[in-house]
Every structure is written in C-alpha cells, then in structure tokens.
Design a protein that fits this description.
The complex is a heterodimer of chains A (395) and B (171). With 395 residues, chain A is an alpha/beta fold. Chain A has helices at residues 11-32, 37-40, 42-45, 50-71, 87-104, 108-116, 120-147, 157-160, 165-190, 200-215, 222-237, 246-254, 268-273, 290-296, 311-322, 334-343, 357-379, and strands spanning 85-86, 151-153, 242-244, 260-264, 279-281, 302-306, 328-331. In chain A, α15 (311-322) links the parallel β6 (302-306) and β7. Helix content of chain B is 68%, strand content 0%. Chain B has eight helices and no strands. Chain B has helices at residues 9-27, 34-48, 50-55, 57-65, 74-92, 108-128, 133-142, 146-163. The longest helix of chain B has 21 residues, at 108-128. Classes of the chains: A alpha/beta (395), B mainly alpha (171). At the A-B interface, α1, α2, α4, β1 and α5 of A face α1, α2, α4, α5 and α6 of B.
C-alpha cells in the first residue's frame, strides 16, 4: 500500500503534503525548545539533555513504526528511501557537522525554527549554511573522490551486524532508555539538584517502551517472513495447488484463449530466447511489488505460472495464495516438459496416420505454437518495462 | 525568569516520531532541512551566473536531476512549512521577539563570528555527509540506514569531542 507517492498521491500534490508536514515539523521542534541555541548545545555540556531525549525518542518511535508497517504489509520497505552509505563522507561530514554544531549552536532544521521566531543569531547561522553549501559546491571537483568513496549502497545497519531487524530495534530501544536514565542523572548532578529519586511516571513509560521494543523481535518484515514460510511449506501444501497439463495449456493457447496469461519465472535470457505468447516475466521476489500486483490481480484471468521444472512456480503459487491472488495455476512439469512434449514434438515418421489423437494434436499444435512464439518474441518490448523505483530522498 | 514552558521532551519526541512515520508512509522519504538550502544555493547560482552553473559539475548534476527547476523540490516546500510551523508555535507560546541570543560571557561579535562559522561548517558537512541531523541522522535512524546512523554518531561524537574547546562560547 504505502508509500502513497507516486501512485495514490501525485507528485504535484506531494508538494502540498511537504508543506503540511513541514508545518507540523517546525511546530514540534519549536514546542520542544529547539529554537534556542542555549538549549541545543546543552547536551554537550551536561546541563540540558532535551535534544537527546527528543531526538532519540523520535528516532526509536519512527523505527518501530516503520518496522510495524512493513510487518503488516502496509509499507513496501523496498521502495522507501534508505540513505545510501558512503563510509568516508558519512564519517568526515558528520565530524564537520559536529564541529559546526558546538561552534554555531544550531543544526540546519533548528536554525530555521529559531529564525522563524525572531532569533537573529540563527539567521546569521543560516547565512553561514548558505556559504558552506556554496563552498562545497565550488570545491566539488576536488572533493568528489572523497564524496563518492566506499560506496556500500543501501546498507541497513542490522545487516552489517548480522542481527535481525527486530533484535537490533529492541537493542536500540534498550540503549535509548538507558541513555534517558543516565542523562537525567548527569543533568541533575551538573545542575546541582538534590532530589535524585526516579519519577514513577518515567518508570512506567520505560517499561511500556521496553515491551513495545521487544515486540519488534516478533515482527519480521512481511516479505522475508513469507519467503521463508513458502520455502518450508512447499511440501506440506503442494496438494492445494492447481495444475495444468502441457496439452491443456497448448489447447488454450492454440485457441487464442484470452482468459489466461502466462507468468514466466525462468531466467531473463531464456525468456528472451523463447518468449511464450501473452506472458510476463517475473521473479519470486518481485511478487511483492506494485507492478506485479497490477499483472496478477487482473480480473477473470488465469495466471499460469511457468518455470523450468515446476518447483519455482510451485513456491510462487504458494506465495501468490499468501498474498491473496486467485486463479493461480502451475504448469505441470514446467517449461522443460512443455518443450519436450509440444514445442520440440517429433513425429517419428508416423505422418499423422495410425497415431493416437494425442500425437496428432501435438504435431499440429507444435507448428502453430512455434509460430506464435516467434511472433511473441518479435512483439516483445511493448509489454512495458516500467518499474516502481526506490524513492529518492535525503538532503 | 518568565519563560514559557516547553513541551515534555519525550512527548515532543514521540510526536516527532509519529510525524516521521506518517511522512515515510505517505512519501516514502524522511524529513530533511539542509537539502533545501542546497536547492536555494543552486537556484541562486543559476540565476546569477548561468554560465558557471552550466560548467561546474555540482550545479550541472543537480540541475539535470531537477529538470532545471532546483526550487521545485520536496524539501524546499517542507522547509517553508517548518518556518510557518515554528512561527505559529512561537505565536501560541508567546516566544516571538527579535533577539540576538548568546551567552552573557561573550560579546556580540564573538557570537556573530561563531554563528556564521558554525553555519559554514554545518552547511559544508551536510553536503559531504549527504544530509544533516534531520535528513541523515533522524530519518536514517528510522529506516535503520547504516550510513545515516554512522553520520549521526559522527555528528554527536564530533560535537562531544570538540565541545571542550568551545565551552567558553556557552558556559
């Protein structure tokens, strides 16, 4: 379902959404006290940890929310923007920003908040930002090699640590809560407060947060979860799958039956060399995508799943059932059997006489079908290769 | 002091987290700020020195990604919203006033120089690090991006590392 952009919300409307989200963002930041540099740098000197509390709470809340949406299949995690990892620029850029933070007292977002309520020092900081970006732009040719070094792609942190997403999220939640208690203690010491007893409300909230954080362990990404399930369930449920024999498929193809479409799970190069009529190439992992949904959820179409020997198609059919698609039929014996029995049919010199009906049918159908396949190969390419791409975000 | 109270930080954080979830659910991307500054810089260079914008790689790449309309960018609209939202918040909480804020122990000029220098560093660093506290650190954390979290640790780690040397600016 999500993200709603660009299919449900168009790109123009998205700018209106941006404005509204921005208003909420600015309002919350200002209400939290992020419009004064004194409060922002407090965490680096131990007298005010507001930034850490707001920031960490927001990050953990966002993380758990995204995991939950992914688990319940409401958000396609493969389409959302994941900041790409370029190791050196991430580290060096981060350090420079940290230096800018303690010297200037703001970060970009907060400086705009502060400027909005009349802080002139924040306006000066913004002028600095503009100069800084300009300097980077001018120096880009020299900086490009660092900027683009160590490109790791869209890596997610739990992958590098060999943890599951849920376990990492739970650990991060624990770290956040520990940090909250620790900084509260430090803050009270630095500000020379005498009462160091914990506040009961925060004890309760911490417990609730730990429980919610722990629940993420049982929220694997829907996609990974289903793929694993299909692997396991293959044998158990295989009797629930509908099959079509090569002869039956051939008959329907020869009759130009337009109530069927072939979903081809073979490798691209093999599909390119023999393209079945009215077929769509697909990979098992792609069945979660919006593009596949458009194909698979067409009304009154039988989806004939084809792979080499039927084993991938069987998994795909199970996955398709899990994803709620109907009318899935697997080609028995896969493309290999289809090829042997029909496409490469050899008549062994019977010349159509004294042979049984099956032989005569196959002999004739083979000729017609091979023509159709040649046509399908030629017409290929207008099937539309448009793919939903990962959204580009970031600064 | 007659200071208007700020929101409870955990509540503010929770609301900010919800906003982040809504943003990612609707748009597929997170929040940001520094990217909007970049758009403004590119737009300015485009109009002031179009020759230069064509030949310099940074502007040329950005313009080709934005079909020559650098200001028509999600983050620009979002940041305009931030200014409006913060203004409304300041209005409601009675915090609107022109004020050059700094520690009483330093002079205006010191704060001026520090603010502009800090801005320069942050602006530069945000371009190198592909995002600032909002775009890389906060949004990166929500989607568990490795790069985003590394940048976050470098920002806060760096700030702690350098904090001692600039303590006179603040305490």
């Amino acid at each position: 379902m999500g993200p709603l952009v660009p299919d449900i919300i168009g790109n123009e409307l998205n700018y209106v959404v941006a404005l509204i989200i921005g208003i909420a963002f600015g309002f919350i930041l200002e209400q939290a006290g992020f419009s004064t540099s004194k409060k922002l740098v407090g965490l680096f000197y131990g007298y005010d940890f507001t930034v850490l509390r707001v920031f960490f709470t927001a990050g953990v809340t966002g993380m758990i929310g995204v995991i939950a949406l992914g688990h319940f299949g409401l958000l396609d995690l493969n389409l959302i923007y994941v900041n790409p990892t370029f190791l050196w620029s991430a580290i060096i850029g981060g350090f420079i920003m940290g230096l800018g933070f303690v010297i200037g007292g703001f970060c970009p977002g907060t400086s705009f908040c502060a400027a909005a309520i009349g802080k002139t020092d924040a306006m000066v900081f913004i002028i600095g930002l503009v100069i800084g970006v300009f300097l980077f732009a001018e120096g880009y040719p020299a900086l490009e090699s660092i900027y683009k070094a160590e490109n790791w792609g869209y890596v997610r942190i739990f992958e590098t640590l060999n943890l599951s997403q849920g376990v990492f999220a739970f650990l991060l939640t624990l770290v956040a809560i520990l940090a909250f208690w620790a900084v509260t203690y430090i803050e009270k010491r630095v500000n020379k407060e005498t009462i160091l007893k914990p506040v009961p409300v925060y004890v309760t909230l911490s417990v609730i947060a730990i429980i919610i954080g722990f629940s993420t362990v049982f929220m694997p990404d829907r996609r990974e979860n289903l793929l694993a399930k299909v692997e396991k369930a293959e044998v158990l449920k295989s009797n629930e799958i509908e099959y079509i024999t090569p002869d039956e498929l051939t008959l329907r193809l020869v009759r130009n039956d337009n109530t069927l479409q072939i979903i081809d799970f073979r490798k691209k190069e093999d599909i390119d060399s023999v393209t079945l009529p009215n077929s769509f190439p697909m990979k098992i992992e792609e069945m979660f995508d919006k593009d596949s949904k458009k194909i698979l959820s067409k009304r009154s179409k039988d989806n004939i799943f084809v792979c080499y020997d039927g084993s991938i198609a069987k998994k795909a059919a199970l996955l398709g059932r899990e994803l709620g698609y109907k009318n899935i039929v697997v080609l028995e014996g896969g493309f290999n059997l289809f090829k042997d029995e029909i496409l490469n049919f050899k008549n062994f010199g019977f010349n159509g006489q004294n042979t049984d009906d099956t032989h005569r049918f196959r002999a004739e159908a083979s000729v017609i079908l091979n023509k159709k396949i040649a046509e399908a190969g030629k017409n290929k390419g207008d099937a539309g290769t448009k793919k939903s791409k990962r959204i580009i975000g970031g600064c | 002091m007659n200071e208007t109270k700020y929101m409870n930080p955990y509540l503010a954080g929770f609301l900010l987290g919800l906003l982040l979830i809504i943003t990612i659910f609707i748009t597929g991307r997170g929040l940001g700020a520094s990217g909007a500054v970049k758009s403004v810089v590119v737009a300015s260079v485009n109009s002031l020195a179009p020759e230069h914008a064509n030949t310099q790689k940074f502007y040329a790449e950005y313009n080709s990604e934005h079909q020559g309309e650098p200001l028509k960018n999600w983050l620009v609209f979002e940041l305009v919203g931030v200014v409006i939202g913060a203004f409304i918040s300041g209005l409601i909480s009675d915090r609107l006033s022109l004020k050059f804020e700094h520690s009483p122990k330093i002079r205006n000029t010191t704060r001026f120089v520090a603010a502009i220098l800090g801005g320069i560093l942050f602006g530069f660093g945000s371009q190198l690090g592909r995002g600032c506290t909002s775009g890389a650190a906060l949004s990166g954390m929500a989607v568990l991006s490795y790069g985003g979290i590394i940048t976050m640790m470098a920002i806060f780690g760096g700030a702690y590392l350098f904090a001692y040397f600039f303590r006179k600016l603040w305490i």
